[in-house]
Amino acid sequence: MTNNGSYAIDLHRVEKTYRGKVRALRGIEMQVHRGEIFGLLGPNGAGKSTLVKIMMTVVRANRATGTILGRPIGHKPTLGRVGYLPEHHRMPPYLTGHQVLDFYAALAGVPRSERRPRARRLLGLVGMEEWADKKLGSYSKGMLQRLGLAQTLMNDPDLVVLDEPTDGVDPVGRRDIRDVLLELRGEGKTVFLNSHLLSELEMVCDRVAILVQGVVAQQGTMHELTAESERYEVAIAGAPPAWVAGDEKLRADAGPNDTTTLIAPRSDAEALQPVLDRLRRESRTILSVKPVRETLEDLFMRAVTDPETGRPHAPGAARNGGSS
Amino acid sequence: MRVFGAMLVDAYRELNSKRLFWVILGLSAFVTIVYGSIGFDDDGMSMFFGLVNIDNPMLSRDSLISSVLYRSIFTTFMIGLWLAWVATILALISTATIFPDFIAGGSIDMVLSKPVRRPTLFAMKYVVSLLFVLLQVTIFCLGVFLCMGLRLGDWEWKVFAAIPIVTVFFSYLYSISVLVGVWTRSALTALLVTMLVWFSLFSVNMAEGVLYQERTKLVIRTEESDRLLDSLDQRLEALPNNDAAAPVRARVEAEQETALAQRTSVQDTIDQLDDWYRPIKWMQAVMPKTGETIGLLDRWLARDTDVNLMDIMAGTVEIDASTGDFETRDTSADRESLRRRLEEDAEKSLWYIVGTSLVFEAVLLLAAGLIFVRRDY
Ligand SMILES: Nc1ncnc2c1ncn2[C@@H]1O[C@H](COP(=O)(O)OP(=O)(O)O)[C@@H](O)[C@H]1O
Ligand SMILES: [Mg+2]
Asked: Which residues of B touch A91 (CB under 8 A)?
């Protein structure tokens, strides 16, 4: 998998220090495979938007090696194959939905003959047909977001980069957006998603990276990242059996209403069977047996917690002079 | 080309959405209608479609004066006052937001992430933002062209020279607005600084005008002194070299001395004035020539005859009321200095006036472009 061609985004040593000495990014290493939905999460000020802006040539990196769709970062023509929805985007309020799509598509180099039918189709895709000829000034936040999403698809991109796409969108809209993303993956497009809404990413992302204070703290498939934490939880009635204390693989937590939860911190089911047998032999009532793995939120909280203080890092980027 | 087309259409839609654009257009229409209401017949001139009549054979139809007057009203009031002042201020207010809006966070991101290079984007945005003024002047000139044709029967194509002239004139000021707007991202600051620079341009030109007049009057005095000294020299030479002529000689020599002293003191004053005049001249040379650019229109519209409204008003042209003929004459030092000024101004080439102004504009735009291209948004 070292072949560049298999990565939609392949970033190495991306560093950015804004004027005013804000070290927003401190050496990013990140790989996004083609055809996957990739989620970048991190607390406010972690540098997510900065990273995206560097890829989109909106911000200049102090240092960046790597490729986007096989071309070096900053290669302008490549951006013709990329769709981008900025965070807090602002589109001309004097244009109608249709005109906005047409305008940005023209900037992206889409020929006129293709723009009209595609705009109509995409307005349908995001459920905005009825608003196609109304001025943006009359749109709600969620409608603007839907239109923005349609805008990113006007050049039929291979890579779609979305910075907080569900910002200000109602639950229905969120599901619609999610469906669109899955559809895009179905078409073989790569989706790069930036969000602080964990549950959202959990539902659609194939792989995620967690960005904390300008560095990638964790990166991998959801499965990879949570495998370590996988465990079985067995809920039984009554007090913990005495023999549990002697088994170093088992842990017992007292549950509510005179119940006990036994935690087997391994994911293979075989190892659990003897435990269940013994419980049955002792006629303990087994209330439930369930495989449990860390949620993205647990993972995230773990990543953003400062191991020294045991508390989450303060929001924002590291200042120059801070530990690196 | 595709990108430029899209940006042009967008610029049109943007100005279309601005209320001020329509306000200016409405006022322009009003001004043009007033202009069109001026008519000339056998008895003289009438205004507001005959509401006000000025009966004077000098102003009758087909007289030279009426034609000169009608053109001069166009260049002096319609262009000089309305377009180059009032409409320009309104246009500056209205266009000051274009670049700050363009580079606003969330809006510039959408554009920069397209496969278009930043310098190209900047240049295109600048050019299409001049559409505002271009459209205004074009529509205006069309109206004036029709008025002249219908009223005087002369279909004067040269009227359309106002389109490039006013647009170029506006672009000098607009480049200031763009630089400040890109730099500070604030439309209000851009507008205020632009007005301030424009006002200081105006002040510098005023100061130069006053200094020029004073200086020229002094120069005229030195010229008079020189002539006097020459004649005194001649008189001395003509005097016979004998005792009878001695008192006369002494008197002439005394006169010569006074004249010389006077000339020296006048020259001293000129030198002192020059300490101020020269730097102001330099400032003028590098600053955009707003007034003179608009003045180019006068030149092009002036017919083969050398008379224009300014000359008439300055009194350097005398008009024979019975025939409508005119002649130029020299009078006092004031008038002489004004005459010299007009002469000098007429000698300034188009390339000097527009060229140096465009250099100024180019420098400002280069700075604005650099800021635009190098910034993190
Ligand atoms: N244009 C800028 N100039 C200076 N500092 C900036 C700029 N943009 C972002 N930052 C700083 O960089 C850090 C990362 O910001 P950002 O990338 O927006 O984080 P995120 O999107 O993860 O919330 C923050 O501390 C922010 O204050
Ligand atoms: Mg962000």
From this structure: 107, 110
Report how far residue B196's alpha carbon sits from residue B209's, in angstroms, rounded to the nearest whole number: 20
pLDDT in tens, B252-294: 888 889 989 999 999 999 999 999 999 999 999 899 999 889 8
Contact call for residues A209 and A225 (beta carbons, < 8 A): no
Pocket of ligand 1 (CB under 6 A): A 18, 20, 22, 24, 42, 44-50, 316-317; B 376
Record: contact B10-A103, CB cut-off 8 A:
yes
Contact indicator for A85, A122 with CB cutoff of 8 Å: no
pTM for the structure as a whole: 0.85
Q: How confident is the model at residue B320 (pLDDT cuts 50, 70, 90)?
A: low
Q: Is A94 on the interface with B (CB under 8 A)?
A: yes
Contact A56 B110 (CB under 8 A): no
Q: Do B14 and A92 touch (CB under 8 A)?
A: yes
Whether residue B330 has pLDDT greater than 60:
no
Q: How far is the C-alpha of A107 from the C-alpha of A116, rounded, in Å?
A: 14
pLDDT digits (tens, 9 = 90+) for A186-224: 999 999 999 877 877 888 899 999 998 899 988 998 888
pLDDT of residue B13: 94
Could you say which of B112, B115, B117 has the minimum Cβ distance to residue A109?
B115
Distance A50 CA to ligand 1 centre (A): 6
Domain boundary residue, one of A221, A251, A284: A221
Q: Which among A232, A208, A233, A223 has a CA at the least distance from the CA of A303?
A: A208
Based on the domain organization, do A111 and A247 belong to the same domain?
no
What's A120's domain CATH number? Answer: 3.40.50.300
Q: Which domain holds residue A258?
A: 231-292
Question: Model ipTM?
Answer: 0.83
- Using alpha carbons, select from A70, A229, A108 the residue that is nearest to residue B115: A108
For residue A254, the domain's CATH number is 3.30.70
Q: Verify that A268 and A142 share a domain, yes or no.
A: no
List the domain range (segments joined by +) for residue B329: 2-374
Residue minimizing CA distance to atom 4 of ligand 1: A18
Pick the last residue of a domain from A174, A191, A221: A221
B→A contacts (Cβ < 8 Å), by residue, are: 2-3, 5-7, 9-10, 13-14, 16-17, 104-117, 374, 376-377
Higher pLDDT, B141 or B38: B141
Sheet strands (E) in A79-175 = 82-85, 159-163
Q: Is the per-residue pLDDT at A279 higher than 50?
A: yes
pLDDT of residue A223: 80
Longest dimension (CA), chain A: 77
